[in-house]
Amino acid sequence: MTDRHEISVTRFIAAPPETVWQVMTGRLEEYWCPRPWTTEIVEIDWRSGGRMATTMRGPDGASHDGDGVLLEVTPGVRMVFTDAFSAGWLPQAAFMVGCLEITAEGEGTRYTATARHWTQEACEQHKAMGFVEGWTTMADQLAELAEATDAHPAG
Q1: Which of 7, 8, 44, 12 is nearest to 27 (CA)?
Q2: Smallest Cα–Cα separation from 98: which of 66, 75, 143, 130?
Q3: Residue 5, class by beta-carbon neighbours within 10 Å (0-12 exposed, 13-18 middle, 19+ buried)?
Q4: Where does residue 152 rank: exposed (0-12), middle (13-18), buried (19+ CB within 10 A)?
Q5: Degrees (nearest 5) of the Cα angle 67, 71, 85?
Q6: How far apart are alpha carbons 130 and 50 in whole angstroms?
Q7: 1-59 pLDDT tens trace
Q8: Coil, strand or helix: which one is 38?
Q9: Which residues of 21-53 are buried (b: 16+ CB within 10 A; e: fewer)?
Q10: How far apart are CA 66 and CA 120, in angstroms?
């Protein structure tokens, strides 16, 4: 397939990849959706094939459940997830495959978040839902946490 129906955002984070990965996996509920929305982790099994289930809640009471699996977890490099399956590899209506990747860049980290869709229509729907704005805000919130953590490491 040459057209991956892909959209992505990227951001430089002024913290080392180890710190960014630690925040990505350990503090997901603090950056996963744009504030004032919040994220509740139902279950995340940080391994390939593990369940990834969250609930995002809006200030007006709206909520969005996300239930899928992690396709790849390469510590310090990338996590790939999809809603095409629920736990136990049970097929369900699919919208996208998400990929969050980090690479060392100078004194910090390059973060790239990508969503791939089965159809152009789904890709356009995701854009219309505010993908760029939402996922850019998510990246900004991740950077804020990682940069603060790096400036004040636990210990």
Answers
A1: 44
A2: 66
A3: middle
A4: exposed
A5: 40
A6: 27
A7: 457 799 999 999 999 999 999 999 999 999 999 999 999 999 999 999 999 999 999 99
A8: strand
A9: bbbbeeebeebbbbeebebeeeebeeeeeebbb
A10: 21
Pairing of strands 85-86, 78-82: unpaired
131-151 and 17-26 helices, crossing angle to 10°: 120
- Angle between helix 120-128 and helix 131-151 axes, rounded to 10 deg: 60
- Rounded Cα distance between 44 and 25, Å, is 9
Q: Which amino acid is at 91?
A: P
> What length is written for the chain?
155
Look at the pTM and tell me if it is higher than 0.85.
Answer: yes
Distance CA 96, CA 124 (A): 12
Q: Residue written as tokens 């704005």?
A: 133
pLDDT tens column, 53-105: 999 999 999 999 999 999 999 999 999 999 999 888 899 999 999 999 999 99
